[in-house]
Amino acid sequence: MLDALNDLQIAHSEQLRGEICKLIESKNGWIGFDQFMDMALYAPGLGYYSGGARKFGEQGDFITAPMMGSLFGRCLANQCAEVLTRCDQSRCRSVVEFGAGTGELMLEILRHLELQKLLPDEYVVLETSADLQERQRQLIATSKPEYLEIIRWSNRLDEKINGIIIANELLDAIPVKRFEIDENFMARELGVTLNDDCSETDTSPFQWKSANQPFELSVQDRLKPFQLDVGYQSEIGLQAEAWVRSIGDNLENGAMVLIDYGFPASEYYHYDRRGGTLMCHFQHTAHDDPFRHPGLQDITAHVDFSAVFEAARQANLDLAGYCNQASFLMSLGILDEYHKVLVGDSKGQDQTSRKSLEVAQQIKKLTLPHEMGELFKVIAFSRNFDYPLQGFDMQNRAGWL
C-alpha cells in the first residue's frame, strides 16, 4: 500500500520536510522546483539517495535494467571492450561509471571484460551516496574481491579520461526546472511555496507557485518553436545539460554512453504532453506528486535528448549515435549473449528450461516496445575516436535530434 509507512519512515520524512520548509522560509517563501528536488533526493543523510533506505529491487521502489539479470551488463561490456581496444594503449585505460546503484552493472561488465581478457586498468565509480558506495564495495568483496584492486570510488571526476564513460538512468535524477506557459505565452518558472504550518503531519505544506517574472530570454527562445499553449507545463534539464558539458570536458580519448528514458525535443514538448514528464516512484507505484513523502520516494523527469546533444556539441564532442535501447542491445549481441548464458549454466534439461525462460524474460523486458525497448534511449558521444560504435550498427536516429 502506497501510504503504509512505519514510524521511522514518518520521522525521516518529517525531518526532511522541516528542512525544506526552513529553506523556503529563508528564500522569502519561494524556491525553484530544482532546489526542492535537490533537497528531496540529495540532502545529506535525509534525501532519497543519501538517506540509507533500500531504493532498488523488490524491497525498494523500482528495478533497473542491470538488476534483471546479466544480459544488459554483458552487452554494455561488449561496447566497453570495443572502445578499450581502440583507445590509446600507452595510457591508463578507464571505464568510468556514474551512479553505480547496486553495483551489479559494474560487476557484470568486469566479469565479461575479464572473459575477453580486456579488463581496464581502472574502473572508476562516481557515487555521491556513501551508503551506496558501501553496498557496492560489499557486493564486489563477496563476489569478486580481486576486482577491488582496479576499482576506485570517487565523489568527483577530476582527471582526463582515456576509455569509456557510462551513465545508466542518471540524467533523469538530476534536478530540473519546471515551467508553465502564462497568458502572454511566456514560460514562467514553477516553484514551491508553503501553504500551511510545517508542523502539520497529515498534509503536505508544499504547493506550486509561479515566479513573478518570466524565464530569461534564452529559455523563451528555446521553447518558442514548439508554440506551447497557455497552461502548458513541463521541465527543462539545465543541470543535466551542465553535467554533460562538464563531464564531456573530461573525456580526452574515447566515448561516453548515456542511457535513460526520454525523447527528442519535438516529442518532449509535444502538445499531448502538456502536463510534463515529472514522475515519482514509491514502493513500485508510480505517481506525479513530488510533495508526497519527501526523502522516501524517487523523483524523476524524462530526458530531452536534443538538449543533451546540444550540450555535448558545446563541449566539442562528436555525436556517435542515438537510438532506442532495443536496437542498441540487439546491435551488441543480446541474442548471442542469451545463448552463451544458457550454455554456461546448462545443468540438466529442467534447469536449462527454467534458465531459458528467465533469460527470455530479460530480453522481453529490455527490448519490447511496451517495456523498456522504446522508451529508453541511448545516446553516445566521442572525442579523438574515429571508429563507429557497435551499439548503433542496427539503428541510428541521430537525425531525430
Protein model, in words:
The chain is of the alpha/beta class and 401 residues long. The protein has a domain at 65-173 and 241-265 and 304-400: Rossmann fold, CATH 3.40.50.12710. It contains 13 helices and 16 strands. It has helices at 7-26, 33-42, 71-86, 104-115, 130-143, 217-223, 238-250, 265-268, 305-314, 325-331, 334-344, 349-367, 369-373; strands at residues 31-32, 94-98, 122-126, 151-154, 161-168, 177-181, 187-194, 206-214, 233-236, 251-263, 279-282, 285-287, 298-300, 303-304, 318-324, 376-383. Strands 2, 3, 4, 5, 10, 14, 15 and 16 form an 8-stranded mixed β-sheet that branches. Strand 11 and strand 12 form a beta hairpin.
Chain-wise SSE layout:
Blueprint: H1 7-26, E1 31-32, H2 33-42, H3 71-86, E2 94-98, H4 104-115, E3 122-126, H5 130-143, E4 151-154, E5 161-168, E6 177-181, E7 187-194, E8 206-214, H6 217-223, E9 233-236, H7 238-250, E10 251-263, H8 265-268, E11 279-282, E12 285-287, E13 298-300, E14 303-304, H9 305-314, E15 318-324, H10 325-331, H11 334-344, H12 349-367, H13 369-373, E16 376-383
Parallel strand pairs: 2-3, 2-5, 3-4, 5-10, 10-14
Antiparallel strand pairs: 1-7, 6-7, 6-9, 7-8, 10-16, 11-12, 11-13, 15-16
Helix pairs in contact: 3-4, 3-11, 7-9, 11-12
